[in-house]
From TrEMBL:
SUPFAM superfamilies: FKBP-like (SSF54534). Keywords: Isomerase, Rotamase, Signal. Residues 54-79, 151-170, 182-219, 331-353 are annotated as: Disordered. Residues 237-329 form the PPIase FKBP-type domain. Residues 152-170 have a biased composition (Low complexity). It catalyses: [protein]-peptidylproline (omega=180) = [protein]-peptidylproline (omega=0). Residues 1-24 form the signal peptide. Coiled coil: none annotated. This is peptidylprolyl isomerase.
Amino acid sequence: MRLRAAAIAAPCFAVLLAVTSCSAIPEDWRTPAFLKSGEEELDDRLPEVSGEFGKEPKVDFSGKAPPQEQVSGVVEKGSGENELIRDSDIVQADVVEYQWTAEGKAKQTQSTYEADAPILLNLGQLNEDLTESLVNQPVGSRVVYAFPPQDPAQAQQQGQPSPKPGSSVSVLDIHERYGESEVVSGEHTSNGGDGMPTVKQPGHDEPDITIPEDTDPPEKLKTEQLIEGDGPEVKAGQQLVVQYTGVQWKNGETFDATWTRQGAEGVPATFIIGDGQVIKGWDKGLVGQKVGSRVLLVIPPDLAYGDSAAQQGAPEGTLVFVVDILDAVNSAPPEEQSGGGSGSGGGSGGGSS
């Protein structure tokens, strides 16, 4: 199920900017100085970061000049020993960003705490020099990054906006991780059937969906909770984290699934719901569902890819999805968003509009 929009809009904070600007950082500058086991202090080139985890941190730049290489480290180690971050995870984080222009001089430019809109980062899509200080750290950790100034000429060559002067600093509070093959944890209260597809779950793996024989598909959107979650209701405009499988009613064949997507098997997908970035059947069928739910969606063609599906290279006819809603988080306001999102909402099975 591919996105209808060309790109997911996502908050434009330093960590996301670093994904594109890293190519502008010379190789010999990519020498992160991470906090090592047994050490008590961070690299002294980093600003002083204090305050309670989960609240906007205090960052002190007094007496320090912007570094000319990428430096990062763990300010505070979380307590979630059974929730260690892996290099293929999607993580939910609050981020505070500063522009560091001279010794002791820095200005806050963004804060997800102020917007109440955490970011979702797909670590599998980031460079190792960005993920090294996150991987194998527990959820609940606070990490600080300092990035060197970007070369304006290189930014122009790469078609990027002119960089702001000075270095940039990002402080991340890691709240959640979503790992490979993660599914909702509740008990099945329904397996579908009675004119609807039947769904079996063979464990932490892709659900088995069977289309009823000799049965015409419904003409209208049908939704059924297979597992009822106990989380908050999904709201339009939120970022969802989901596992899903999509099959065609006409032949029961799987055309797309997070479980089998090449290069990211079992990694959840992220996208914005209720905003026209996915097919209408998803926008209509998932808004109002509770986080933690597994939902069966039977979507007629007019709410999927319509009569032109074949021309788009999209699956034709009525589509059936089983969606595990792992989480829903607020999105940044439009003026704080930019193209180049934090995740992908679909694979081989759909077309864009």
